[in-house]
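$ fold --in a.seq
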Amino acid sequence: MILGPDKQKLSKRHGAVSVLAYKDEGMLPEAMMNFLALLGWSLDDKTDQMPVARIIANFSLERINKSAAVFDVEKLAWLNGAHLRALPPEEAVRRVRGYMAEYGPDPAAYDPEWLAGVIALFLERARTLKSLVEQMAYFLSDEFPFDEKAVEKHLRKEGAAEMLEAAEQALAAAPDFSHRTLEAAMQALVDRLQCSFSKIAHPCRVALTGLQASPGIFDVIACLGRERTLKRLAYARENLCARH
């Protein structure tokens, strides 16, 4: 018998019950097979993530569990993330592009090399294809929501507009947008203003992503490029920062 997290018999009230529903959520087939195998069997007392070939090669009736299994969606998501990170980078990008092609946005609308670089920024912490694509939203479109708490904390405080303007000027003058050049430009700005790096990075991060947390700020700036970065900094400075 398979139970829900509340230890009651698994039913529709526990959420998705169709395999296709988990496909919609961005679960990998091999992760789902791995998870389902572990509901009634185990290799040992410590191994969770396994390729399907290893499960088949090591399956034995002696290791079948006699007690009821719990269908833990959180464990499935964790296991899916582990399988996603175990894929070769090119295959991981192919899977994400395939998910986007079916559920949107259309990957053909973006430069393949650029899109692969953006995907790479999120793979390490991704748990599903769906969540990964959702996290990429502020790269894929210039229309994205701003977290109100992030805006209040980092953009509506005194001096934020001045910090964004200084960052705009420094980045506009940068000879290129390579990671190394961006670091040098921002460090020079920190030295000139005699402030901590976080006083510049935090408002810039919110202006560029709408969030308090994101991949590294230099990775974000490099992937957005000069034009989009400067436009977003200017928009936040003019529309979201407090007026003093």
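$ fold --in b.seq
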Amino acid sequence: MFHLIGKTNIDFIGKRKYAFALSAILIILGLIALVMILIGKANMGIDFAGGTMIQGSFAQPINIADLRGAMTGGGFPDATIQELKAEGVQNYFLIRVKNLGENTPSSATETVTSLLALISKSFPNNQFTKDSEHSIGPAVGETLRSQAKWAVILAVLGILIYIWFRFDFRFGVAATVATFHDVLAVLGIFWLLGIEIDLLVITALLTLAGYSLTDTVVVFDRIRENLKLFRKKGDFVSTFNISINE
């Protein structure tokens, strides 16, 4: 079997103080990010903050970088632009922006009007035909934010219950803390870098939680087996190091 990394003998437990310090920084950063998200002060995508999206096609090919530059220069620096593939239609784009002013139906209409005017002004020789438009109001955004929050909470509880039955309650608590730590760390880094938080990011965080759990289960399984082998020696530090290195 192919092994990317051979057998290791790293003293993980001996370096735990450095790991604790780094983890503390990441957890604090993650908690700050979580609070900012809950109070709506983070860089939230239109899935949560509300906004407007339009779909349409250009008459001629257009560089997506030029389109993004036009959006930024026209007062929509947070615009998300995605080129779509539709049967029988070329140069088809999805443009998502946050609404101008208050997030109301009138502001959504104003946003669409401003977008179309900006596109027409920026590309006068390349007609844009709007196919559809959709708006996400603040109530819908709040609902999605609440659902995302409960999805994460239920996922963590599911992890706790699964590990509890697979090993014991102590392992379940440890696995939950480890998984929550990994999610918070990534969330904090995303917030620090100003990355937009949307449903895709939440999906990625839940996927991360799954991979983190898998890795934790493997390590816990090795610890459980090695504790049976080395219990008489009473050297738990060596047992944990051996288990992690394996």
